[in-house]
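S.,

Sequence below, as promised.
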Amino acid sequence: IDGLPATITVVGTNFVDPMTVQIYGGNGAAIPVNNAIVANSSQLTFTAPAMQDSYLNTQPCVPTGGTVVNGIKYVPTSFGIRLRNSRTGCTVDLPNVLIYNPSQANTACRAPITFAGVAIPTATLCSAYGSVVFTAAGGTAPYNIAVGGLPTGVTYTTTGSENEIVTISGTPALALSGAGTASQSFGVTINATDASTPASVGSISYTLVLNDSNAPFNVTAAATTLDVTSASPASTTVTASQLGLGGLTYSATVPVPALPPGEVTFTFVNGTATLTRIAAGAGGSSTVDVTVADAGCGGTRHEGTVTLTLNY
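The prediction came back faster than expected:
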């Protein structure tokens, strides 16, 4: 069968309408046919559907102009007919009775899609990375390119040309603000799907290592409790384990429960947290979160938080 639907006649016994037909075999085909006509108890006809080349078998070959057996081509492939009596459920298989030929467009040897590129350099957090260039060739241009597994802040561009150029570049950033990781490996995969029918797919995978000299970024306090029940003031120093990127900033939440006005005050300036009693009162206890962070990049940053207890 060459591409177009073909009328098939099956001769046998005990054909009873309705009968269903399925074409099976090849590369996983199981195609229902709903047009079977039972002429009489010994004959039925149906129209065999056109077969996608993706269901045909393939064999290795040498692409035009090549010297290495690294291509594939579709070859004539045998399929079976499965008949089923819808009333009784009885089924009979006629294996390898239909031979489908590949479409004219897919009789030639298809060159594989391959990638050429350079050694992958190590990336540094918040420093410009790239450009790392890969070139896709083979198959049938144009290609649909998809790249997965890149760090946050690193992207790719393509040229859309016959020899597709994929450029990886950007400024890697933390996926989420926090401590970060000193060294992290990313499994990156580049997939190219060509314009042939059925499409050919080629891919290349590599490991991108991202180093972060400011990780892990930890924040600690010399003391986590400030007590002014008998003395005033009380203070502690909050420090970060790393110098950070672009300087450090210091912030604090509102104490919970709120400090009684006119009785005590709390400040957090340049890493020094201070609790001061300014008048006698009923006393109590509150907590406050103090955070140290760097400037970061790409909308995220290194940061750490310590909870202080305030007794007054």
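The CA atoms of residues 177 and 300 lie 5 Å apart.

Coffee later?
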